[in-house]
């Protein structure tokens, strides 16, 4: 495949246009799985670092369309998972949003979520595809914000498979499989949240670097640390909250400031990455957050629009009249179907 098929070099940064092209970006790792900072709990543990490399290598050699290799987790790894799972599931009924609490039992029934089993990414990915079309792709380490967000445009979430060090089960300095499976996965099965997440990804395609930073900040304060109003109560929906026993409790107290989610404001908010958040942004609903993101995306300086085609799992770049005409025909077809359905149920 030619480089030009991935590029918009004449108008801005290049980006993938087909889901299989994520293979070209997924291994542009900023920090490989076994590359740990000196203050990491597992820095001096040679066995742990070797295990991290083993699991990171699985992701590094993965290609789109393959089945995600299954991992046989050790008793030590399962014990760490069990500690986290048991503590968090005590809090979910009262602290997590209703959409999360609706999906979590389904993951227990369909994907093996329980204290004694770390679910396999392949099983989780198939479940999500059945629910919303989202899928899991294993990743060997940290990606750049641009590459990570581009995956969301294709309803693809890059997930680690390695787990945090057993010496500190309630803390991890970077995403691990507990954060991914307990924090992120449940809400990717919710249609409104899945659409909201994809909107951030679509907005990132071809965006200038300064707007990638702004979009990554919006992602941080929503998908990672977002809160929402439900029946006059505040609930957590961000993965960083739903996978942290301490911060899940902290975020609902008066110790932090709460602001209304507005992408134009949120995008410039500074934040710490190694401590609890001093500020959280609150959404009225996933649907309203999605509409706000769409409006904000219009302000990003790109000489084209993008549309995701779920039939071909590709991104269509809309930049000329013929493409607009074709898009209009597709929308007319959908409207005709909608009118037919409404007429049959007595809606019109």
Give a structural overview.
Helix 7 packs antiparallel against helix 8. The chain has 13 helices and ten strands. A hairpin with a 4-residue loop joins strand 9 (305-309) and strand 10. The chain has 348 residues and is α/β, with parallel strands linked by helices. The termini are far apart. The model is unreliable at 1-9 (pLDDT under 50). The chain has a four-stranded mixed sheet with strand order 6-5-8-7. The chain has a two-stranded antiparallel sheet with strand order 1-3.
For the structure shown, list the relevant keywords.
4-stranded mixed β-sheet; alpha/beta; disordered N terminus; globular; 12% strand; 348 residues; 13 helices; 46% helix
Question: Would you list the SSEs in sequence order as H and E?
Answer: EHHHHEEHEHHHEEHHEHEHEEH
> What is the rounded distance between the termini?
49 Å
The gyration radius over C-alpha positions equals 20 Å
Q: Please give the count of helices.
A: 13
User: Largest beta sheet: what is the strand line-up?
Assistant: 6-5-8-7
Q: How many strand units?
A: 10
Report the β-strand fraction as a percent range. 5-15%
Low-confidence stretches: 1-9
Q: What general form does the structure show?
A: globular
**Mean of the pLDDT scores?**
91
Largest sheet features: 4 strands, mixed
Structural class: alpha/beta
Residues in helix, %: 40-55%
